[in-house]
Amino acid sequence: MNFRDFKLEEPVFESIDAMGYDKPTPIQEKSIPITLQGKDLIACAQTGTGKTAAFLLPVISQIIAKGNDEHKIKALVITPTRELAIQIDQQLEGMSYFANVSSLAIYGGGDGMSFEVEKKALLEGADIIIVTPGRFISHLNLGYVDFSSLDHLILDEADRMLDMGFMEDIMKIINSMPKNRQTLMFSATMPTKIRQLAKKILNEPEEVSIAISKPAEGVFQAAFMVYNEQKISLLTHLLSSKNIDSSIIFSSTKDNVKKLYKELKKLKMNVGAIHSDLEQSERQEVLRLFKNRELQVIVATDVMARGIDIEGVGLVINYEVPSDVEDYIHRIGRTARADTKGIAFTFVNNEDQYKFYDIEKFLEKSIPKGKLPDSIGEGPIYDTTKFNNKEGRGKRPTYKRKNFKKK
Ligand code: AMP
């Protein structure tokens, strides 16, 4: 299939050419025709599948087709994090280059000045607005948001937004919109609460699903059984021996991220950190330096795991086992994007073995276990028998697996 098979407006084709997209990705193939027909859509697709273009291209095309003289809000994209809002806005800039379509991203995290700038921009109007729920509600409450020309609502990463507690804000935004609109909902997973939300806000939606819940083929995964006190030596050993110029280390808490950052700094590594205690501008700067290869390593919490599109990350290290299979897949999905090769290592201490075992069960394969270097000594033994007998299962801490679509 070719992009020219879609009934998109000519300026959209020009943008697609300029961006160098050869052919549509599977989610684009399935969802663009539905969106162009003006229907509501519920799509199960993860970041990395091309889902942003899947909703932006047909929405831009419809805006052009309708005639776009006044730059009032025609489409609203709601997304969970600032990073995603910025990223969608950047993709949109490329896509709307040849079209007379304006955009505005409203994501908070800035100072009072940026609130005023956003307010002014909202009053002036823009065709497509990309927002995070909390910040947008502040503007909505002040009464100057004009939805009278709104035709399209897009909920991006809907499952994540619900997990982050945005349900009430989202409903408030939706309730202040015209009922006669097209609604597109994208979610990486389809748990019951997402289906319930879909029922409430979508009108006879078509459903498409791209189940890429398994990691990309190009990711080489391995695990190291380690005691906590061995982890830092193993980390520095791997970072220096692999000699990869772009690595992300994930840790579960911001305190751990801060600690690791300090440790690696002490070792004179070219490292940055990303966690929620940093100002938005600081996080952006770290990302920028990392993307430009001025930073070789970043240590991050899960803020980073979803959606952030950085090309050429060679190595992902999970300093602890993520507490859920979905997070594992998102984290290792930062590497080996778009058919490249990458490595994902996971450090598994004794307490985390059951979580890792669950990940292996979900992936339906045993992940190779790496041998610790002699200088670090022996690590614990990976013993899954305790999870297979009744006694062991009874002792196992509760571990919630999110609703996950399998291939
Ligand atoms: P997303 O899933 O929206 O985060 O997109 C992941 C990456 O794929 C982004 O860098 C997009 O620019 C890129 N992309 C989207 N659609 C295509 C396409 N049809 N061909 C090549 N790359 C694409």
Distance between the termini: 22 Å
Query: Biggest sheet, in brief?
Result: 7 strands, parallel
Structural class: alpha/beta
Strand-residue proportion: 5-15%
Radius of gyration equals: 22 Å
Strands, count = 13
**Ligand identities:** adenosine monophosphate
CATH topology of the largest domain: Rossmann fold
CATH architecture of the largest domain: 3-Layer(aba) Sandwich
User: What is the topology, as strand order, of the major beta sheet?
Assistant: 3-4-2-5-6-1-7
Order of helices and strands: HHEHEHEHEHEHHEHEEHEHEHEEHEHHH
CATH superfamily of the largest domain: P-loop containing nucleotide triphosphate hydrolases
Share of helix among residues?
40-55%
- Quote the average pLDDT: 86
What does this structure look like?
The protein is of the alpha/beta class. The chain has 2 domains: 3-209, Rossmann fold (3-Layer(aba) Sandwich), CATH 3.40.50; 219-387, P-loop containing nucleotide triphosphate hydrolases (Rossmann fold, 3-Layer(aba) Sandwich). It is 40% helix and 15% strand. It has 16 helices and 13 strands. It has helices at residues 10-19, 26-36, 51-66, 82-95, 112-124, 133-141, 158-163, 167-175, 192-201, 231-242, 254-266, 280-291, 325-332, 353-363, 385-388, 390-395; strands at 41-44, 75-78, 103-106, 128-131, 152-155, 182-187, 206-209, 219-225, 247-250, 271-274, 297-300, 315-318, 342-348. Strands 3-4-2-5-6-1-7 form a 7-stranded parallel sheet, with helices on both faces. Helix 3 packs across helix 4 and helix 6 (133-141) packs across helix 8 (167-175). The longest helix has 16 residues, at 51-66. It is globular and about 70 Å long. The two termini are 22 Å apart. Mean pLDDT is 86; it is low at 389-407. It binds adenosine monophosphate. The site of adenosine monophosphate has 14 residues, from helix 3.
